[in-house]
Automatic annotation (TrEMBL):
Alphabetical keyword list: Membrane, Transmembrane, Transmembrane helix
Annotated protein name in UniProt: diguanylate cyclase
E.C. code: 2.7.7.65
Coiled-coil residue spans: none
Protein backbone atom coordinates (compact mmCIF):
# COMPACT_ATOMS: atom_id res chain seq x y z
CA UNK A 1 0.00 0.00 0.00
CA UNK A 2 2.82 2.41 0.91
CA UNK A 3 4.65 1.69 -2.32
CA UNK A 4 1.53 2.17 -4.42
CA UNK A 5 0.69 5.44 -2.66
CA UNK A 6 4.20 6.84 -3.15
CA UNK A 7 4.25 5.89 -6.81
CA UNK A 8 0.78 7.38 -7.36
CA UNK A 9 1.74 10.67 -5.70
CA UNK A 10 5.02 10.87 -7.61
CA UNK A 11 3.24 10.09 -10.88
CA UNK A 12 0.90 13.01 -10.20
CA UNK A 13 3.87 15.29 -9.44
CA UNK A 14 5.62 14.18 -12.62
CA UNK A 15 2.47 14.83 -14.63
CA UNK A 16 2.18 18.33 -13.16
CA UNK A 17 5.85 19.06 -13.91
CA UNK A 18 5.33 17.75 -17.45
CA UNK A 19 2.47 20.22 -17.91
CA UNK A 20 4.64 23.07 -16.58
CA UNK A 21 7.65 22.23 -18.75
CA UNK A 22 5.40 21.53 -21.72
CA UNK A 23 3.94 25.02 -21.43
CA UNK A 24 7.50 26.35 -21.95
CA UNK A 25 8.04 24.57 -25.27
CA UNK A 26 7.02 27.70 -27.14
CA UNK A 27 9.79 29.64 -25.35
CA UNK A 28 12.26 27.95 -27.73
CA UNK A 29 14.73 27.54 -24.86
CA UNK A 30 17.14 24.74 -25.73
CA UNK A 31 16.65 21.59 -23.67
CA UNK A 32 12.94 21.97 -22.90
CA UNK A 33 11.96 19.23 -25.34
CA UNK A 34 14.37 16.75 -23.73
CA UNK A 35 13.13 17.65 -20.25
CA UNK A 36 9.57 16.99 -21.40
CA UNK A 37 10.60 13.57 -22.75
CA UNK A 38 12.29 12.81 -19.42
CA UNK A 39 9.00 13.31 -17.59
CA UNK A 40 7.10 11.27 -20.19
CA UNK A 41 9.53 8.39 -19.57
CA UNK A 42 8.95 8.66 -15.82
CA UNK A 43 5.19 8.69 -16.34
CA UNK A 44 5.56 5.43 -18.26
CA UNK A 45 7.79 3.76 -15.69
CA UNK A 46 6.13 4.66 -12.38
CA UNK A 47 2.69 3.13 -13.17
CA UNK A 48 4.46 -0.02 -14.36
CA UNK A 49 6.30 -0.23 -11.04
CA UNK A 50 2.99 0.30 -9.20
CA UNK A 51 1.31 -2.45 -11.22
CA UNK A 52 3.87 -5.08 -10.35
CA UNK A 53 2.02 -8.36 -9.81
CA UNK A 54 -0.84 -7.14 -11.98
CA UNK A 55 0.96 -6.74 -15.30
CA UNK A 56 3.61 -9.17 -16.58
CA UNK A 57 6.95 -8.93 -14.75
CA UNK A 58 8.66 -8.10 -18.06
CA UNK A 59 6.78 -4.78 -18.03
CA UNK A 60 7.06 -3.99 -14.33
CA UNK A 61 10.77 -4.82 -13.99
CA UNK A 62 12.96 -4.55 -17.15
CA UNK A 63 10.77 -2.14 -19.12
CA UNK A 64 9.98 0.04 -16.10
CA UNK A 65 13.65 0.29 -15.09
CA UNK A 66 14.83 0.98 -18.63
CA UNK A 67 12.18 3.69 -19.07
CA UNK A 68 13.18 5.33 -15.78
CA UNK A 69 16.86 5.27 -16.76
CA UNK A 70 15.95 6.65 -20.18
CA UNK A 71 14.21 9.56 -18.49
CA UNK A 72 17.38 10.40 -16.59
CA UNK A 73 19.36 10.12 -19.81
CA UNK A 74 16.97 12.53 -21.53
CA UNK A 75 17.26 14.94 -18.60
CA UNK A 76 21.06 14.96 -19.01
CA UNK A 77 20.68 15.68 -22.73
CA UNK A 78 18.32 18.55 -21.90
CA UNK A 79 20.87 20.06 -19.52
CA UNK A 80 23.61 19.73 -22.13
CA UNK A 81 21.53 21.48 -24.79
CA UNK A 82 20.38 24.18 -22.35
CA UNK A 83 23.99 24.93 -21.38
CA UNK A 84 25.24 24.85 -24.97
CA UNK A 85 27.29 21.69 -24.50
CA UNK A 86 27.46 18.54 -26.69
CA UNK A 87 24.79 15.97 -25.83
CA UNK A 88 26.89 12.91 -26.74
CA UNK A 89 23.78 10.98 -27.79
CA UNK A 90 25.87 8.02 -28.97
CA UNK A 91 27.52 7.63 -25.57
CA UNK A 92 24.22 8.07 -23.75
CA UNK A 93 22.48 5.58 -26.01
CA UNK A 94 25.28 3.07 -25.60
CA UNK A 95 25.16 3.36 -21.81
CA UNK A 96 21.40 2.77 -21.82
CA UNK A 97 21.90 -0.22 -24.10
CA UNK A 98 24.46 -1.73 -21.71
CA UNK A 99 22.11 -1.14 -18.77
CA UNK A 100 19.19 -2.74 -20.64
CA UNK A 101 21.32 -5.79 -21.52
CA UNK A 102 22.42 -6.17 -17.89
CA UNK A 103 18.87 -5.89 -16.56
CA UNK A 104 17.58 -8.43 -19.08
CA UNK A 105 20.42 -10.83 -18.32
CA UNK A 106 19.77 -10.75 -14.57
CA UNK A 107 16.06 -11.06 -15.24
CA UNK A 108 15.97 -13.89 -17.80
CA UNK A 109 19.43 -15.47 -17.58
CA UNK A 110 19.91 -15.32 -13.83
CA UNK A 111 16.97 -13.95 -11.93
CA UNK A 112 18.87 -12.01 -9.28
CA UNK A 113 17.00 -8.94 -8.03
CA UNK A 114 19.87 -8.03 -5.75
CA UNK A 115 22.29 -7.60 -8.66
CA UNK A 116 19.64 -5.72 -10.65
CA UNK A 117 19.25 -3.21 -7.84
CA UNK A 118 23.01 -2.72 -7.61
CA UNK A 119 23.34 -2.18 -11.38
CA UNK A 120 20.40 0.22 -11.58
CA UNK A 121 21.61 2.17 -8.53
CA UNK A 122 25.11 2.47 -10.02
CA UNK A 123 23.68 3.74 -13.31
CA UNK A 124 21.48 6.34 -11.61
CA UNK A 125 24.36 7.44 -9.37
CA UNK A 126 26.64 7.91 -12.36
CA UNK A 127 24.07 9.82 -14.42
CA UNK A 128 23.09 12.11 -11.54
CA UNK A 129 26.73 12.92 -10.76
CA UNK A 130 27.29 13.62 -14.46
CA UNK A 131 24.31 16.00 -14.43
CA UNK A 132 25.61 17.74 -11.29
CA UNK A 133 29.08 18.17 -12.81
CA UNK A 134 27.69 19.38 -16.13
CA UNK A 135 25.59 22.09 -14.50
CA UNK A 136 28.23 23.19 -11.99
CA UNK A 137 30.96 23.50 -14.63
CA UNK A 138 28.91 25.41 -17.18
CA UNK A 139 26.91 28.02 -15.29
CA UNK A 140 26.31 30.78 -17.87
CA UNK A 141 28.28 33.98 -17.23
CA UNK A 142 26.48 37.00 -15.80
CA UNK A 143 23.67 34.82 -14.48
CA UNK A 144 22.48 34.38 -10.92
CA UNK A 145 24.12 31.06 -9.92
CA UNK A 146 21.53 30.08 -7.31
CA UNK A 147 19.23 28.16 -9.66
CA UNK A 148 22.14 26.24 -11.18
CA UNK A 149 23.83 25.35 -7.90
CA UNK A 150 20.50 24.27 -6.42
CA UNK A 151 19.83 21.89 -9.31
CA UNK A 152 23.39 20.54 -9.20
CA UNK A 153 23.08 20.04 -5.44
CA UNK A 154 19.80 18.16 -5.83
CA UNK A 155 21.42 15.86 -8.38
CA UNK A 156 24.33 15.24 -5.99
CA UNK A 157 22.02 14.44 -3.06
CA UNK A 158 19.99 12.02 -5.16
CA UNK A 159 23.20 10.42 -6.44
CA UNK A 160 24.31 9.83 -2.85
CA UNK A 161 20.91 8.28 -2.09
CA UNK A 162 21.21 5.86 -5.00
CA UNK A 163 24.80 5.03 -4.07
CA UNK A 164 23.76 4.22 -0.48
CA UNK A 165 20.95 2.02 -1.80
CA UNK A 166 23.35 0.11 -4.04
CA UNK A 167 25.90 -0.38 -1.25
CA UNK A 168 23.31 -1.57 1.26
CA UNK A 169 21.78 -4.02 -1.21
CA UNK A 170 25.27 -5.20 -2.14
CA UNK A 171 26.08 -5.94 1.48
CA UNK A 172 22.88 -7.92 2.00
CA UNK A 173 23.96 -11.57 2.47
CA UNK A 174 21.48 -13.10 0.06
CA UNK A 175 18.34 -12.04 -1.74
CA UNK A 176 15.15 -13.02 -0.07
CA UNK A 177 11.66 -11.78 0.74
CA UNK A 178 13.09 -9.28 3.24
CA UNK A 179 14.92 -7.52 0.41
CA UNK A 180 11.75 -5.63 -0.58
CA UNK A 181 10.11 -5.64 2.84
CA UNK A 182 8.30 -2.40 3.77
CA UNK A 183 11.07 -1.22 6.10
CA UNK A 184 11.88 2.40 6.88
CA UNK A 185 15.05 2.13 4.77
CA UNK A 186 13.22 0.77 1.74
CA UNK A 187 10.54 3.41 2.12
CA UNK A 188 13.20 6.15 2.24
CA UNK A 189 15.01 4.73 -0.79
CA UNK A 190 11.74 4.42 -2.71
CA UNK A 191 10.89 8.02 -1.89
CA UNK A 192 14.29 9.23 -3.08
CA UNK A 193 14.09 7.19 -6.26
CA UNK A 194 10.61 8.37 -7.19
CA UNK A 195 10.98 12.10 -6.47
CA UNK A 196 14.20 12.49 -8.48
CA UNK A 197 12.54 13.57 -11.70
CA UNK A 198 9.89 15.95 -10.23
CA UNK A 199 12.58 17.64 -8.11
CA UNK A 200 15.09 17.83 -10.96
CA UNK A 201 12.40 19.17 -13.28
CA UNK A 202 11.66 21.88 -10.75
CA UNK A 203 15.35 22.82 -10.98
CA UNK A 204 15.09 22.82 -14.78
CA UNK A 205 12.08 25.15 -14.64
CA UNK A 206 14.06 27.51 -12.40
CA UNK A 207 16.94 27.51 -14.88
CA UNK A 208 14.53 28.13 -17.77
CA UNK A 209 13.01 31.02 -15.85
CA UNK A 210 16.47 32.48 -15.29
CA UNK A 211 17.30 32.15 -18.99
CA UNK A 212 14.06 33.84 -20.04
CA UNK A 213 14.62 36.70 -17.58
CA UNK A 214 18.18 37.14 -18.87
CA UNK A 215 16.91 37.21 -22.46
CA UNK A 216 14.26 39.81 -21.57
CA UNK A 217 16.81 41.95 -19.74
CA UNK A 218 19.22 41.68 -22.64
CA UNK A 219 16.51 42.76 -25.07
CA UNK A 220 15.59 45.71 -22.84
CA UNK A 221 19.23 46.77 -22.51
CA UNK A 222 20.11 46.49 -26.20
CA UNK A 223 19.27 48.60 -29.19
CA UNK A 224 16.96 46.41 -31.28
CA UNK A 225 18.57 47.33 -34.62
CA UNK A 226 22.29 47.14 -33.94
CA UNK A 227 22.66 45.18 -30.72
CA UNK A 228 24.68 47.97 -29.11
CA UNK A 229 23.68 49.02 -25.59
CA UNK A 230 20.61 51.20 -25.37
CA UNK A 231 21.05 54.83 -24.32
CA UNK A 232 19.43 54.13 -20.95
CA UNK A 233 21.64 51.14 -20.13
CA UNK A 234 24.75 52.90 -21.39
CA UNK A 235 24.06 55.78 -19.02
CA UNK A 236 23.54 53.36 -16.13
CA UNK A 237 26.82 51.53 -16.75
CA UNK A 238 28.64 54.81 -17.33
CA UNK A 239 27.58 56.13 -13.91
CA UNK A 240 28.72 52.89 -12.29
CA UNK A 241 32.12 53.20 -13.98
CA UNK A 242 32.40 56.83 -12.84
CA UNK A 243 31.83 55.75 -9.23
CA UNK A 244 34.43 52.99 -9.63
CA UNK A 245 36.93 55.39 -11.21
CA UNK A 246 36.44 57.84 -8.34
CA UNK A 247 36.89 55.14 -5.69
CA UNK A 248 40.06 53.75 -7.30
CA UNK A 249 41.49 57.03 -8.66
CA UNK A 250 41.51 55.66 -12.20
CA UNK A 251 41.18 57.62 -15.45
CA UNK A 252 38.00 57.35 -17.49
CA UNK A 253 37.38 58.64 -21.00
CA UNK A 254 34.52 58.75 -23.45
CA UNK A 255 34.42 58.87 -27.24
CA UNK A 256 31.28 60.17 -28.92
CA UNK A 257 31.07 59.00 -32.53
CA UNK A 258 28.95 60.18 -35.45
CA UNK A 259 28.89 58.51 -38.87
CA UNK A 260 29.63 61.15 -41.48
CA UNK A 261 26.97 62.18 -44.02
CA UNK A 262 24.61 59.43 -42.89
CA UNK A 263 21.60 61.13 -44.47
CA UNK A 264 23.37 60.87 -47.80
CA UNK A 265 23.93 57.14 -47.19
CA UNK A 266 20.20 56.70 -46.60
CA UNK A 267 19.34 58.77 -49.67
CA UNK A 268 21.76 56.82 -51.86
CA UNK A 269 21.33 53.27 -50.59
CA UNK A 270 17.92 53.45 -48.93
CA UNK A 271 17.08 52.92 -45.28
CA UNK A 272 17.80 49.21 -45.59
CA UNK A 273 21.32 50.08 -46.70
CA UNK A 274 21.68 52.59 -43.86
CA UNK A 275 20.52 50.01 -41.32
CA UNK A 276 23.04 47.52 -42.67
CA UNK A 277 25.83 50.09 -42.34
CA UNK A 278 24.86 50.70 -38.71
CA UNK A 279 24.84 46.98 -37.90
CA UNK A 280 28.17 46.35 -39.64
CA UNK A 281 29.72 49.34 -37.91
CA UNK A 282 28.69 47.95 -34.51
CA UNK A 283 30.35 44.62 -35.39
CA UNK A 284 33.51 46.48 -36.36
CA UNK A 285 33.57 48.40 -33.08
CA UNK A 286 33.16 45.22 -31.03
CA UNK A 287 36.18 43.71 -32.77
CA UNK A 288 38.32 46.74 -31.93
CA UNK A 289 37.27 47.43 -28.33
CA UNK A 290 38.80 45.80 -25.28
CA UNK A 291 37.01 43.70 -22.71
CA UNK A 292 35.44 46.07 -20.23
CA UNK A 293 34.87 48.91 -22.70
CA UNK A 294 31.23 50.01 -22.89
CA UNK A 295 29.64 50.73 -26.24
CA UNK A 296 26.17 52.14 -26.78
CA UNK A 297 23.95 53.78 -29.36
CA UNK A 298 22.86 57.27 -28.33
CA UNK A 299 20.41 57.62 -31.19
CA UNK A 300 20.35 57.68 -34.98
CA UNK A 301 23.90 57.39 -36.26
CA UNK A 302 25.47 58.61 -33.00
CA UNK A 303 27.30 56.21 -30.69
CA UNK A 304 29.44 56.44 -27.58
CA UNK A 305 32.30 54.37 -26.17
CA UNK A 306 33.21 54.57 -22.51
CA UNK A 307 36.81 53.59 -21.82
CA UNK A 308 37.52 52.68 -18.17
CA UNK A 309 41.12 53.07 -17.03
CA UNK A 310 41.98 55.14 -20.10
CA UNK A 311 43.41 58.66 -20.22
CA UNK A 312 43.12 61.15 -23.09
CA UNK A 313 46.08 59.87 -25.20
CA UNK A 314 44.87 56.29 -24.81
CA UNK A 315 41.32 57.24 -25.74
CA UNK A 316 42.55 59.10 -28.82
CA UNK A 317 44.53 56.03 -29.94
CA UNK A 318 41.46 53.82 -29.64
CA UNK A 319 39.25 56.38 -31.40
CA UNK A 320 41.80 56.74 -34.20
CA UNK A 321 41.89 52.98 -34.60
CA UNK A 322 38.11 52.98 -34.96
CA UNK A 323 38.23 55.84 -37.44
CA UNK A 324 40.91 54.14 -39.55
CA UNK A 325 39.07 50.81 -39.57
CA UNK A 326 35.80 52.51 -40.51
CA UNK A 327 37.40 54.43 -43.38
CA UNK A 328 38.57 51.10 -44.86
CA UNK A 329 35.28 49.31 -44.21
CA UNK A 330 33.19 48.51 -47.26
CA UNK A 331 29.62 47.41 -46.57
CA UNK A 332 28.06 45.34 -49.35
CA UNK A 333 24.47 44.19 -49.85
CA UNK A 334 21.58 44.18 -52.30
CA UNK A 335 21.80 47.98 -52.21
CA UNK A 336 25.35 47.91 -53.59
CA UNK A 337 28.60 48.79 -51.87
CA UNK A 338 28.79 51.58 -49.32
CA UNK A 339 31.86 53.35 -48.00
CA UNK A 340 31.55 55.48 -44.86
CA UNK A 341 33.68 57.43 -42.41
CA UNK A 342 33.21 58.69 -38.89
CA UNK A 343 34.06 61.67 -36.72
CA UNK A 344 34.79 61.40 -33.02
CA UNK A 345 35.04 63.59 -29.96
CA UNK A 346 37.13 62.52 -26.96
CA UNK A 347 36.81 63.77 -23.39
CA UNK A 348 38.41 62.51 -20.17
CA UNK A 349 36.41 62.56 -16.97
CA UNK A 350 37.26 64.88 -14.10
CA UNK A 351 36.48 63.72 -10.58
CA UNK A 352 32.91 64.57 -9.49
CA UNK A 353 32.00 65.76 -12.99
CA UNK A 354 28.51 64.71 -14.07
CA UNK A 355 27.95 62.34 -16.97
CA UNK A 356 26.01 65.08 -18.76
CA UNK A 357 28.96 67.46 -18.47
CA UNK A 358 31.38 64.81 -19.71
CA UNK A 359 29.20 64.02 -22.73
CA UNK A 360 28.79 67.73 -23.44
CA UNK A 361 32.56 68.16 -23.67
CA UNK A 362 32.85 65.12 -25.93
CA UNK A 363 30.01 66.49 -28.09
CA UNK A 364 31.85 69.78 -28.32
CA UNK A 365 34.97 67.97 -29.57
CA UNK A 366 32.83 66.02 -32.03
CA UNK A 367 31.30 69.22 -33.38
CA UNK A 368 34.81 70.64 -33.84
CA UNK A 369 35.80 67.51 -35.79
CA UNK A 370 32.78 67.92 -38.06
CA UNK A 371 33.38 71.55 -38.90
CA UNK A 372 37.07 70.75 -39.46
CA UNK A 373 36.22 68.46 -42.38
CA UNK A 374 34.92 65.20 -40.80
CA UNK A 375 36.67 61.81 -40.83
CA UNK A 376 38.58 63.20 -37.86
CA UNK A 377 38.99 62.60 -34.12
CA UNK A 378 39.52 65.55 -31.76
CA UNK A 379 39.72 65.78 -27.98
CA UNK A 380 38.28 68.37 -25.63
CA UNK A 381 40.52 69.67 -22.85
CA UNK A 382 39.12 72.05 -20.25
CA UNK A 383 40.96 75.33 -20.08
CA UNK A 384 42.27 76.50 -16.75
CA UNK A 385 39.49 79.10 -16.56
CA UNK A 386 36.80 76.46 -17.08
CA UNK A 387 38.41 74.22 -14.53
CA UNK A 388 38.57 77.03 -12.02
CA UNK A 389 34.94 78.02 -12.61
CA UNK A 390 33.75 74.41 -12.14
CA UNK A 391 35.82 74.07 -8.97
CA UNK A 392 34.24 77.24 -7.60
Amino acid sequence: MLTTSLLAITSLLSFMMLLIVGSLLRSRVAGVREWCLANVAVLISLPLFALRGVVPDFLSIPIANIALAGGLLSYYAGCARFLGQPTHWQVLGASLGVLAAAILFWFYGTDNPQVRVIIVSAYHTTMLLAIAQLIARHIPPRRHPYNYWLTASLATVFAIGHAVRGVVFGLTPAPGPELYAPTAFNAAMLTIGTIVMPAMTMGAVMMIHDAMLATAEEAANRDYLTGALSRKHFDLLARQEMARALARSLPLSIVVIDLDHFKQINDTHGHAGGDTVLREFVKLVRDVLREGDIFGRLGGEEFAVLLPGTDTPGAIRIAERLRTQASRHLVAGPFGVCHYTLSGGVATWHAHESLEALCMRADRALYAAKISGRNLVLSDVLSSDETASEAG
